[in-house]
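Hi R.,

Here's the chain you asked about this morning:
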Amino acid sequence: MKQPDANFVDRRKAANEAKAALLEKMKAKQNDPATEARRQERAAIAAARAEREEAKRAQQLEKEQQRQAALLAEQAAAAEAAEKTAASEKDRLIAKAMEDQAAQKAKRDARYAARQARKS
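And the predicted structure, written out as tokens:
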């Protein structure tokens, strides 16, 4: 069996030492008060951003509700105007029908009067 190369063993040992050093460095950073302060600052910034986004969403929702209310009011006004127009048209047609009936009655009465005049 072949012995591992001394250079390989040294490189492997150096790699393990580097990993251990990085691990120690990370552990030291986790307990560092400056790192914790930065973490809290980032959390505060994220919370403020979330609050602004929520306020923006609420404002957009309010604008959308106002737009919907305005649209409904506009549709109601248009429906009322159409109803008034239809009622006005209906009244006009009723008045015209009454005038036509009155004219027919007047003609009928005139014929009756003419007939009565011929008889007498």
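The radius of gyration is 48 Å.

Let me know if you need anything else.
M.
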